[in-house]
Amino acid sequence: MPSPQELQAATGRTIPDVLAPGLSVVFCGINPGLWSAWSGFHFARPGNRFWPALHRSGFTPRPLRPAEQGELPGYGLGITNLVARGTARADELTAAELAAGGRTLVRKIRRFRPAWVAVLGVTAFRTAFADRAATVGPWSGTLGGVRVWVLPNPSGLNAHYTLDRLAAAFAELRAAVQ
Fold first, then answer.
1. 115 contacts 25 by C-beta, under 8 angstroms
2. Among positive and negative, which fits the CA dihedral 40, 8, 89, 109?
3. DSSP letter string over the chain?
4. CA distance 76 to 16
5. Which pLDDT score, from 0 to 100, does residue 99 have?
6. What is the CA radius of gyration of the chain?
7. Minimum mean pLDDT among 53-67, 68-82, 146-160, 163-177: which range?
8. Topology of 4-177 in CATH?
9. Nearest in space to 79 (alpha carbons), one of 42, 121, 31
10. In contact, 176 and 70? CB cutoff 8 Å
11. How many CB atoms lie within 10 A of CB 174?
12. Which one of 21, 57, 68, 166 counts the least CB within 10 Å of its CB?
């Protein structure tokens, strides 16, 4: 477990994407939290519900730990972020950073050509893609010609979504993918 000093020192760090050509779904987080920036793994903070929701929705046959993120492409899945730099909270990001991150995401999507991109965090999505009307679920547009699904932010700070509701939202995407 990292010390508070180690977490603070992780501010601004980046972590590598988990991407490969032709994946079924690329999950796009907002940005790495400090636990992720410290560990080098996506959605690494204890209490983040990404990994349990991924499994409960049927995307993976067993629960994966953040350190097992390298197994995702074998399931047709990948992970990236809108903004690369680690912060304690996503609300530390500026609208300009999110918009620039959206442009970067489109370039990645064009390069790797997944079937779907799932952006985790409706408020960040609205800002990044200038669509105030976006809601959780399928989005009417595409990014780089790829279909888009907006999912709730899996952070434990997002109390609006229980793990069961989050897993159900992921399962709706999974059904659309199949």
1. yes
2. negative
3. ---HHHHHHTTT-----B--TT-SEEEEES--BHHHHHHTSTT-STT--HHHHHHHTTSSSSPPPGGGGGGGGGGTEEEEESS-S-BSSGGGS-HHHHHHHHHHHHHHHHHH--SEEEEE-HHHHHHHTT-TT--SEEEEEEETTEEEEEE---STT-TTS-HHHHHHHHHHHHHHH-
4. 17
5. 98
6. 15
7. 146-160
8. Uracil-DNA Glycosylase, subunit E (3.40.470)
9. 42
10. no
11. 19
12. 21
Report the C-alpha gap between 149 and 119 in whole angstroms.
Answer: 6
Q: Is the pLDDT of residue 144 over 80?
A: yes
Q: How far apart are CA 122 and CA 134, in angstroms?
A: 7
pLDDT at 116: 98
Exposed (0-12), middle (13-18) or buried (19+): which is 113, by Cβ within 10 Å?
Answer: middle
Residue 121 is encoded by which pair of tokens?
Answer: 């965090």
Q: What's the confidence (pLDDT) of residue 159? A: 74
The full set of domain ranges for the chain reads 4-177
Q: pTM of the predicted model, to two decimals?
A: 0.97
Are the C-beta atoms of 153 and 124 separated by less than 8 Å?
yes
Centre a 10 Å sphere on the Cβ of residue 140 and count the other Cβ atoms it contains.
8
d(CA 65, CA 145): 31
Instruction: For residue 128, give both structure tokens.
Output: 């990044």
